[in-house]
Amino acid sequence: MASAPLALLSRLAQTQQGGAGLALAGQLVVVIWSNDALKFVLSTDAHRFQKDGTAFFPNSILTGDGLLTSDGDAWKRQRRAAAPAFRDAAVRRYSRVMASNAERTFAHDWASDQVVSLWSRCNALTLAIAGEVLFGEDFLVDDADALTTNLEVALDEFAARGARGFADPEWLPTPGNLRFRQAVAAVDEVVLSIIRNRRRRLQTQGEPEGDADLLTRLVAASGAETTDQQLRDEVTTMLVAGQETSAIALFWLLVDLALGSAANATSTSPLSRCTDEVDALAASKGGESFTLDDVSRLRYLEACVLESLRLHPPAYLIGRCATMDTTLPGLGDVPQGATVLPCAYLAHRTNQWDAVTSYEPRRWLPEGAPDAPCVLSAEPAHDAPLFISALKDGANGTLRGSPMYIPFGGGPRNCIGSAFAVCEVVVLAATLLRKYSMRWPGYTSDAPTDNLGRLRVDDSFPIAADAGLTLRPRTNPLVSLRIVSR
Prior knowledge:
Helix 4 packs across helix 5 (118-135) and helix 5 packs antiparallel against helix 9. This protein has helices at 5-15, 35-44, 72-82, 88-108, 118-135, 141-164, 175-205, 214-222, 228-263, 270-285, 299-311, 344-347, 386-395, 418-435, and strands at residues 19-24, 27-32, 49-50, 114-117, 320-322, 326-328, 332-334, 339-342, 436-439, 455-456, 462-463, 480-485. The protein is an alpha+beta fold. A hairpin with a 3-residue loop joins strand 6 and strand 7. It has a five-stranded mixed β-sheet. It has a three-stranded antiparallel β-sheet with strand order 4-12-9.
């Protein structure tokens, strides 16, 4: 499980039906992917499970007691306090930050006819956006550099610790733990300084009129009894979870589109259809940036995002610990204290899906919907974005064909930032495709994919997931794209 989790999961899917129990380091770990078991654990009987005590998802000084790891009443209070910061009106404001960062970055750092290291560019862009959304004007260049460098170190060590499953505690003075603690201390220095400055400003000047960044909303909603450390845990959790999720989702979307175009260099490739759709909307908007309001007008591109999330869910395993003896539907008894891992990666690759191993964005479009381009004007769209029904119905097992679709979890603990993440990936991809296209340097089209989700540029260059806590891409060798002006 630690060295090759996707290979193990694929073997389990071939030999087991809907779930499997594993004895690892003397502990029972149950991986589940059947509809009934997933609904039971994530939704209908979610009260029987908690985060604390879960193997592979260790508590950490990096995220502290933030929304991602807390349980019970503390989690409910945190969720209520954070909810206003992720409503449509707030995400609409954040989408302008997404667009401005994307336009600036693509103009300077993704210059035409340049081969770029895809993961590092996606990671840097989404971190810049997360920092500005969270901290607003207080997110200075020096802060961004310090957070980028130290978060990368901390996340690498955190992911490695989670992948080992039963790792040494963080207080042990191992080389990895020392690097980790030093990086977290540097992150804390930046984050706590911004929090303290913001609190002083709000006390003396009051809440600002108009747009407010996420930190201001959290401070205002939390009250004076909330400590700086509690706010630090919330902010750092959102920074870590939100930024990484968006970076991974953007990476796999661009990989899927570029590979599909290379294997099928025609007007029917997903990349060509997305480009046509973006061009049609851009022509009607003039020079205006893409925002949340455009997500429902970019139906085919949004469908591509949903399909890439199906094949490459960033949170491919979801951690839970049984708080009581219970029975998983169709699978059997699970004792108190056992780790249960709902597996989005396998749930999205069962035979309940039509053409399960194929990249088929049209599965997400309403029946009878035209191919792209399907945008006629920049007037407000009356239809809701596709992801609203896809995430809601998929997590409840009521999607067309009834497969579970849980790229952001499900039930009461579904990811609070799922709308933010999908909006961000659509806006960033549309902004990129407005001016550029993508090519693989030296691509060969044979065997583009296999059942582990690996994609090939040539015989010696697999694009594989470096699965740990998330479905990050493997960074050795680097995955590069050539950015081409259109």
